[in-house]
Amino acid sequence: MTDEVEWWDYDDAAEMAGAVAGDIAFIIESAIDARGGAVIALAGGKTPMPIYEKLSQTKLDWKRVTIVPGDDRIVPLGDPLSNVTAIGKIFIPKGARVIPLISEAAKDYKAAGKAADARLGDLHWPLDLCLLGVGADGHTASIFPGPDYDEAVNGPKERRALGVMPDPLPAEAPVPRVTLSLSAITTARALMLAVTGDAKRKVIETAIKQGPASTYPIGRVLADAELPADIHWAP
Ligand SMILES: O=C1O[C@H](COP(=O)(O)O)[C@@H](O)[C@H](O)[C@H]1O
């Protein structure tokens, strides 16, 4: 458990994208050298897309890279809200393996979470990197207040993914989700956040001050992280 974080401030989102892409590339290369492959979880949403565009331009042995979204919205593949679609469009052409969290065949969000957990069991754990985003409401990945919150943050350590029904549903993507569990996130060999804007910065600062009893999901995650997290921020 750590309450240590390091803030990295940039002048703008483009500068942040270059720096974070460089850090991720270094982590991928180190994992390939050490273990023959890299398994990373990447945040969805809009903020990290310039980072992914930059990263995809880096010369790496992409065939040895497995990417899983840190969370996804339960929508069909190709839907504008689908995190795996956005990530896959950028990295599949490079040769990376992109593993979806969503199974369209699942009968409900709980079953979708169970299917994702089973699928992730085939990967090499722990993650080499988990890159998180943060919502203005303090959610991270898809760990939201609601009926599944306790399972997401206090569930069995070996559970890597689960289905969640945010309550209230977030306006920007009002659908059930599948998310990595707090345990899957906090055991990653490297934990990074990439966020923009003063409002999110204030939420994160408050969450850190609140510590393990934080009312914000990001506060719980940072308080439980096994290693110091790097928080990359641009206005
Ligand atoms: O719903 C989600 O929101 C967060 C934040 O997204 P952003 O668009 O404000 O950057 C994101 O990290 C998460 O992956 C996503 O599913």
The amount of helix comes to 25-40%
Uncertain ranges: none
CATH architecture: 3-Layer(aba) Sandwich
Mean pLDDT: 97
Based on CA atoms alone, the radius of gyration comes out at 16 Å
Tell me the overall shape.
globular
The sequence of SSEs as H and E is EHEHEEHEHEHEEHEHHE
Strand order of the largest sheet: 1-10-9-6-2-3-5
Please, how many helices?
Answer: 8
Q: What do we call the CATH topology?
A: Rossmann fold
What is the CATH C level class, in words? Alpha Beta
The domain count comes to 1
Residues in β-strands, percent = 15-25%
- Distinct ligands: ligand LXAUTJHC
Distance between the termini: 29 Å
Q: What is the total tally of β strands?
A: 10
Content-based structural category: alpha/beta
Largest sheet: 7 strands, parallel
Protein name: 6-phosphogluconolactonase
Pathway: Carbohydrate degradation; pentose phosphate pathway; D-ribulose 5-phosphate from D-glucose 6-phosphate (oxidative stage): step 2/3
Function: Hydrolysis of 6-phosphogluconolactone to 6-phosphogluconate.
Domain Glucosamine/galactosamine-6-phosphate isomerase: 12-223
